[in-house]
Design brief:
Layout lengths: L1 E4 L4 E7 L15 E6 L1 H11 L4 E6 L5 H7 L6 E6 L6 E7 L5 E4 L8 H15 L8 E5 L10 H9 L5 E5 L2 H9 L8 E2 L3 H8 L5 H7 L4 H12 L4 E5 L5 E5 L2 E5 L12 H14 L4 H16 L19 E3 L2
Parallel strand pairs: 1-4, 1-8, 2-6, 4-5, 8-9, 9-10, 10-11
Antiparallel strand pairs: 2-3, 6-7, 11-12, 12-13, 13-14
Helix pairs in contact: 1-9, 6-8, 9-10
The protein binds 1-O-phosphono-beta-D-fructofuranose.
């Protein structure tokens, strides 16, 4: 069983410009698409598109257009559990330019009341309670809406731990800092920082790890990830864009090259990497296979426009090369 929680889901509106963005001027748009989004929704979508059933848990009123958008995907393996809330799902806009530059404009989201936060927690535990097989995953993803406690993910890890499910957390900024502050007591089984987020967690300069990775030196990334593993996190999957990815666990660290694809839009690439990792894991793959599949799904997402998410048909023909770092 796989349940994703997206505390701050969105309708993702992607607008395509026929030329470069002209700041301070009127820009005429090419195509406009709207898709259901938010990181956990994306993870569940990718899993379901690959034949792995998943439930996307979102706070949303029963008449929220987000729910209609999820429904209209018509994905048989995708279940949606909506916890009724007063606010509407935010609309996040992505502006894409012909050279592949994508600019995201994310709203902060309608707030959650204390009672709504409690209702989401109750629904999450209820969904996961039957999942005591040790193979199930809870994926907690994205920013937190106003009103949610900044350490909500820390609390949720503590709440879910006794249920015997594996827990992935993918977030940034203050909720990520809160997660780091909650170690080692509330350590997730998987986190997926990018280079800058990993640097933030490891107390390194913002671009130190990425700069080293671009120069082909993955030691600093592996070292930062190892520190987090020593603090109790089961696996750190660091995604490094064109420089590939590094997976660190208690058994070692590996680097994977990024399969070569034409990069069209990186929106959803991180979510697709998590889906790929979990997909390989629930299919019994070892750590190298989880890393390879994460890279394949992340690269496939980057080769698709806007927030389009990959299906198995979109996976790159060439797999990553994996090298053990330690
Ligand atoms: O504002 P957050 O929660 O950090 O990110 C939300 C978001 O940018 O992430 C997804 C792509 O990863 C999009 O579907 C969505 O718009």
């Amino acid at each position: 069983m796989i349940v994703t929680l997206t505390p701050n889901p969105s309708l993702d509106r992607t607008v395509t410009l026929p030329g470069p963005l002209l700041r301070g001027a009127v820009n005429r748009l090419g195509s406009v698409t709207v898709e259901p989004g938010g990181k956990g929704v994306n993870v569940a979508r990718v899993l379901a598109s690959s034949g792995q059933e998943a439930t996307a848990l979102v706070p949303a009123a029963s008449d929220d257009p987000l729910l209609r958008a999820i429904d209209s995907l018509g994905l048989p393996g995708l279940a949606c559990r909506a916890v009724p809330v007063a606010g509407a799902a935010r609309i996040n806009t992505a502006v894409t330019e012909p050279d592949g530059t994508t600019t995201k404009l994310n709203e902060s989201g309608a707030g959650l009341s204390e009672a709504e936060v409690a209702a989401v927690e109750a629904a999450l535990s209820e969904e996961l309670r039957p999942a005591s097989d040790g193979r199930s995953w809870a994926v907690l993803s994205g920013s937190l809406p106003p009103g949610a406690p900044v350490d909500w993910y820390v609390r949720l890890v503590g709440l879910l731990r006794p249920l015997g499910v594996r827990i992935a957390v993918d977030t940034s900024d203050a909720p990520l800092a809160a997660l780091a502050a909650g170690l080692p007591d509330c350590a997730p089984d998987l986190i997926k920082p990018n280079g800058q987020e990993l640097a933030q967690l490891a107390g390194r300069g913002a671009t130190d790890l990425e700069d080293a990775a671009v120069a082909g030196d993955f030691g600093p990334v592996a070292e930062a990830a190892r520190i987090l593993v020593e603090l109790g996190i089961g696996a750190v999957l660091a995604t490094l864009g064109p420089a590939g990815g590094v997976l660190a666990t208690g058994e070692g660290a590996w680097h994977a090259t990024a399969p070569s694809v034409p990069v069209v839009s990186t929106v959803g690439a991180g979510d697709s990497s998590i889906a790929g990792f979990i997909l390989a894991d629930v299919r019994g793959g070892g750590q190298a296979e989880c890393l390879r599949t994460a890279m394949a799904y992340g690269s496939a997402a980057a080769s698709l426009p806007g927030t389009a998410l990959p299906t198995p048909r979109d996976l790159p023909a060439q797999a990553s090369e994996i090298v053990r770092l330690n």
